[in-house]
Amino acid sequence: MAGRKFFVGGNWKMNGTIESGKKLVETIKSAKLDSNTEVVIAPPAIHLLLVKDALSGVEHVQVSGQNAYHKASGAFTGEVSVTQLQDAGIPWVILGHSERRTVFKETDDQTAEKTKAALDAGLSVIVCVGETLDEREKNESVNVVVRQLNAVADQVKDWTKVVVAYEPVWAIGTGKVATAEQAQEVHAAIRKWASDKLGQSAAESLRIIYGGSVAAKNCKELATQNDIDGFLVGGASLKPEFTEIVNARL
Ligand SMILES: O=C[C@H](O)COP(=O)(O)O
């Protein structure tokens, strides 16, 4: 709210085929999407250029990498660099997703290093933060996200091209969506952190989006919250209902 453009990311994760990706793009292209919402689709790396080309000319819809390596080039088998994304015309990258942190053991500092490198390469970044169930039960949610954000802020001073995704790990892919109140509480804490750390004007323009079992049936209530500026959608971004989530504010 407060003049921030609504933002909906579709993170396809490691799902789909060339055919299914093309079909999803057709669904997006044929839908009437809210022109006040910025949409970013993050297909698997091997489908990035295909999806980018298929979406070319579609207004308000861009593509994103799901991860990137901070070095520009070199002997890093299997990695794609921030510079290569930029060179390929991919304007966004998701960094610090909880699956990168938990499955691939990426640390707060690595996420911060990648975020700095991506911004330096000219990309925009969706940086993900969020607590585990254990941390929530210990009342640590805000401490955890603040720790994760502080690591990024140690390396990144200008947050103009950063979107923060709050994704409680216990809500990802589980069907257990955070209630609107639970999500708003952490989003407000993130905005307060941003105001203290980055200044009031940066905090007011920072988009803080929610991720974790967002679906057509729960997106509208979440979208009414003051500090929820959009969504990062996983499972539902692989279905036609994604377009209803994009239109959550209509
Ligand atoms: O990046 C997206 C999030 O991990 C949420 O995934 P999900 O909507 O399947 O819970």
Structure notes:
The protein has 250 residues and is α/β, with parallel strands linked by helices. It has one domain: TIM Barrel. The chain is built from eleven helices and eight strands. It has helices at residues 18-30, 48-54, 82-87, 98-102, 108-120, 133-137, 141-155, 180-198, 200-205, 216-223, 242-246, and strands at 6-11, 37-42, 61-65, 92-95, 124-129, 162-166, 207-211, 230-233. An eight-stranded parallel β-barrel has the order 1-2-3-4-5-6-7-8, surrounded by five helices. Helix 5 packs across helix 7 (141-155) and helix 7 (141-155) runs parallel beside helix 8 (180-198). It is globular, with a radius of gyration of 17 Å. The mean pLDDT is 97. The protein binds glyceraldehyde-3-phosphate. Residues 11, 97, 167, 172-173, 211-214, 232-236 line the site of glyceraldehyde-3-phosphate (G3H).
Fold blueprint:
Elements: E1 6-11, H1 18-30, E2 37-42, H2 48-54, E3 61-65, H3 82-87, E4 92-95, H4 98-102, H5 108-120, E5 124-129, H6 133-137, H7 141-155, E6 162-166, H8 180-198, H9 200-205, E7 207-211, H10 216-223, E8 230-233, H11 242-246
Bound molecules: glyceraldehyde-3-phosphate.
Residues 11, 97, 167, 172-173, 211-214, 232-236 line the site of glyceraldehyde-3-phosphate.
GO cellular component, one term: cytosol
Organism: Acaromyces ingoldii
Pfam families: TIM
